[in-house]
Amino acid sequence: MKSKVITDNEISIHTEAFGDPSHDPIILVMGAMSSAVWWPDDFCNDLAAADRYVIRYDHRDTGQSTSYAPGQAPYSVEDLADDIVRVLNGYDLESAHLVGMSLGGLLSRLVALKYPHRVKSLTLIASERIDETDPTLPPFDPAILEYHQQAQTLDWSDRDAVVEYQVGAWRINAGTAHPFDDELIRNIARASFDRTPNVLTTFNHTTLGGDDEILKRLDEVIVPTLIIHGTEDPALPYAHGLALKAAIQDSELLTLEGTGHELHPGDWPVIIHAIQKHTNRP
């Protein structure tokens, strides 16, 4: 793994690359409030071993990228998407395959809509179609919101407490297809805490606004798109994956039976194989 800091217009994006730069590039875009390490090292190495050049990065207000005071984020969802373009430019890449999870899928779609010539393909994991008015799409599992209420009283300077809180959050997001991997999640949570100067800045992602109208223009997505969604996703139930597939022309759907809102090691072989196949195009 090689680290690289990309700076542009007073914005600093911390990135890490795996594999051979001569291979086809993939940029991994993680979800809200999550630094790059939530794409585990072993996942990145396995994907790189499939003859891909893999780049992950810290969103603003996570990890080692530019952060702002809690509650003072001077950027929008569109600005976070433009950070993906900054990563492309920082690596002198004309285009790349984008693999986004949850919010990362939304940001990747936004780049594909605004800059289609910069995107070779999209892979959207546990992501959603933006349409708050659709009554047929099920909401978050109430247990998730109930669990996160304890965030208001948590001591966010207490590393052990924050780590255990995050382990519990990922446990609620998990499906029944595989045993929950406490050790993996705990180790990632520790690494993420240690690389983030102030964990409270990550909550800036919960206040972001943006232009929802452009995000709804899914019929205009012209790049090849693979959708990966678990049938037991409690945060974005499986119906969201089906709605996303219906909205993006000629998209493909990989269903993960019993998987939740997670990137479980038990699913890595099928996910990596699917990404390798999907990105094996001119």
TrEMBL record:
<protein>
    <submittedName>
        <fullName>Alpha/beta hydrolase</fullName>
    </submittedName>
</protein>
<dbReference type="InterPro" id="IPR050471">
    <property type="entry name" value="AB_hydrolase"/>
</dbReference>
<dbReference type="GO" id="GO:0046503">
    <property type="term" value="P:glycerolipid catabolic process"/>
</dbReference>
<keyword id="KW-0378">Hydrolase</keyword>
<feature type="domain" description="AB hydrolase-1">
    <location>
        <begin position="31"/>
        <end position="264"/>
    </location>
</feature>
<dbReference type="Pfam" id="PF00561">
    <property type="entry name" value="Abhydrolase_1"/>
</dbReference>
<dbReference type="InterPro" id="IPR029058">
    <property type="entry name" value="AB_hydrolase_fold"/>
</dbReference>
<dbReference type="GO" id="GO:0004806">
    <property type="term" value="F:triacylglycerol lipase activity"/>
</dbReference>
<dbReference type="InterPro" id="IPR000073">
    <property type="entry name" value="AB_hydrolase_1"/>
</dbReference>
